[in-house]
């Protein structure tokens, strides 16, 4: 391996190692050399020498080559690499959990084609963030780049395993869809990994029995150039094709997966987007009821602080404890483990399951929605309305050069009429003057850009719009 100057190596890694994963532009910060160094560092940090490391990758053109580079670095430091090939991110979590082995997944999720990255897991699909090992991996990798990777006394091996059928069977064992009413669903895989996993889990491609589902596929061809639209369903523009197709086909609902298929978004029969908070509430109630029926009395469910107020209300009404957390993938995985929560939901359509090693799984959330919806006769739009009683703004980003000044303006404007909470950014809660209509909003600075992110909710649309517009004016003043 060619060595790099210390400052160059560290700068290269600082640019691509983010709060919860590695992400960068292929051929710039993210190269085969860098990946080899990160692999060696990962093996060192998690103590995988002499043990197994799972490596999977998505459909991006650069992913197979990066997976091979990772195998070189990992085996050089003595780990036995188990290659699971093309897979979704939650499929890699399944492999990590079922094999009790650390894992590396090559994907840039919903980012454009020029990007790639790595999502790391400790054994048992446990998350790794900057605070829990990723910073150490970065520092070790810098040493490997500067000094070269020192081979272990006994290099590791590489073997190949296909886990798709086992993954599909495991999800089927968690949610039984065999008895639901027949449903027609349009699924937009966005040319991402849902094109591989949906036919296996919801269809018969993995050799499982047929379910009462008629699936209309949209963009199932695996193509890391994303020729139809970006694989980011959080952006409304990327849902348009699915919404149109649901109406045209007279489907009962639509599902949209992001590029690595770990997030799932739902569209009703009219083409309306179902809020991820509503999905979180539906799945939470199903999981609470399931474990209560098994005799579990002390049940906890996690939600981050920018999900709808309805989510904790529904959890508490079902006799469970709602645990409010900061926003963040690895953080919520850590909280799932610490609290023993049966389920966790985020506004961004990440859904976490105790029965899935505390990891997130968009497919499993979709299956819960199909099970709940398929057990009753009402249209999904009616069910969605029932689980979305309040009005949410969605996340609104504003470029802000001076975040403390914006915070000061907000504090001064709301000091006499609201409560403040600084768990994650700034959350402000109050009621409309002369009325009992509640509202709240949260502003959080971006970790990587000069942005403030606003989320607001009101008891009704007018209340939400008023508070949203007032806060945006303060942020952008």
3D architecture notes:
The chain has about 475 residues and is an alpha/beta fold. The protein has four domains: about 5-160, Alpha-D-Glucose-1,6-Bisphosphate, Chain A, domain 3 (3-Layer(aba) Sandwich); about 165-275, 3-Layer(aba) Sandwich (Alpha-D-Glucose-1,6-Bisphosphate, Chain A, domain 3); about 275-385, Alpha-D-Glucose-1,6-Bisphosphate, Chain A, domain 3; about 390-475, Alpha-D-phosphohexomutase, C-terminal domain (TATA-Binding Protein, 2-Layer Sandwich), CATH 3.30.310.50. Helices cover about 35% and strands about 20% of the residues. The chain has helices at about 5-15, 30-45, 65-75, 90-100, 135-145, 165-175, 195-200, 240-250, 275-295, 310-315, 330-340, 360-375, 380-385, 405-415, 460-475; strands at about 20-25, 50-55, 80-85, 105, 115-120, 125, 160, 185-190, 215-220, 255, 265, 275, 300-305, 320-325, 345, 350-355, 390, 395-400, 420, 425-430, 440-445, 450-460. The strands form four sheets. Strands 1, 2, 3, 4, 5, 6 and 7 form a seven-stranded mixed sheet that branches. α10 (about 310-315) links the parallel β13 (about 300-305) and β14 (about 320-325). α1 (about 5-15) packs antiparallel against α5 (about 135-145), α9 packs parallel to α10 and α9 crosses α12. The longest helix has 18 residues, at about 275-295.
């Amino acid at each position: 391996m060619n060595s790099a100057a210390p400052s160059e190596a560290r700068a290269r890694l600082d640019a691509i190692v983010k709060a919860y994963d590695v992400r960068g532009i292929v051929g710039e910060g993210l190269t085969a050399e860098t990946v080899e160094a990160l692999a060696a560092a990962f093996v060192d940090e998690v103590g995988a020498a002499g043990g197994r490391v799972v490596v999977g990758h998505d459909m991006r053109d650069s992913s197979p080559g990066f997976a091979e580079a990772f195998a070189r670095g990992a085996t050089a430091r003595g780990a036995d690499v188990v290659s699971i090939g093309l897979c979704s991110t939650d499929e890699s979590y399944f492999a990590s959990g079922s094999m009790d082995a650390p894992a590396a997944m090559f994907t840039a999720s919903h980012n454009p084609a020029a990007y790639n990255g790595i999502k790391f897991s400790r054994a048992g699909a446990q998350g790794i963030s900057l605070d829990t090992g990723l910073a150490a991996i970065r520092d070790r990798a810098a040493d490997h780049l500067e000094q070269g990777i020192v081979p272990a006394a006994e290099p590791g091996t590489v073997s190949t395993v296909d886990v798709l059928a086992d993954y599909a069977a495991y999800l089927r064992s968690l949610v039984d869809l065999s008895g639901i009413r027949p449903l027609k669903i349009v699924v937009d895989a966005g040319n991402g990994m849902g094109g591989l996993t949906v036919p296996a889990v919801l269809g018969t491609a993995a050799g499982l029995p047929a379910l009462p589902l008629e699936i209309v596929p949209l963009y199932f061809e695996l193509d890391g150039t994303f020729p139809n639209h970006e694989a980011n369903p959080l952006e409304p523009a990327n849902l348009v094709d699915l919404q149109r197709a649901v109406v045209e086909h007279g489907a009962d609902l639509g599902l949209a997966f992001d590029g690595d298929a770990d997030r799932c978004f739902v569209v009703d029969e009219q083409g309306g987007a179902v809020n991820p908070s509503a999905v979180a509430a539906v799945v939470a109630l199903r999981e609470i009821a399931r474990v209560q029926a098994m005799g579990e009395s002390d049940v906890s469910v996690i939600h981050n602080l920018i999900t709808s107020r309805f989510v904790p209300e529904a959890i508490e009404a079902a006799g469970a404890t709602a645990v409010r957390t900061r926003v963040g993938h690895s953080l919520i995985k850590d909280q799932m483990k610490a609290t023993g929560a049966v389920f966790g939901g985020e506004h961004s359509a990440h859904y976490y399951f105790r029965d899935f090693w505390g990891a997130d799984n968009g497919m499993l959330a979709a299956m819960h929605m199909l099970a709940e919806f398929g057990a009753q006769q009402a249209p999904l739009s009616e069910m969605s309305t029932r689980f979305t009683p309040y009005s949410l703004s969605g996340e609104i980003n504003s470029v802000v050069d001076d975040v403390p000044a914006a915070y000061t303006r907000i504090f001064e404007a709301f000091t006499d009429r609201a409560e403040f909470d600084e768990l994650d950014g700034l959350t402000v809660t109050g009621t409309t003057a002369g009325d009992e209509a509640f509202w709240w909003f949260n502003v959080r600075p971006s970790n990587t850009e000069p942005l403030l992110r606003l989320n607001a909710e009101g008891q009704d649309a007018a209340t939400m719009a008023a508070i949203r517009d007032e806060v945006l004016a303060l942020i952008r003043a």
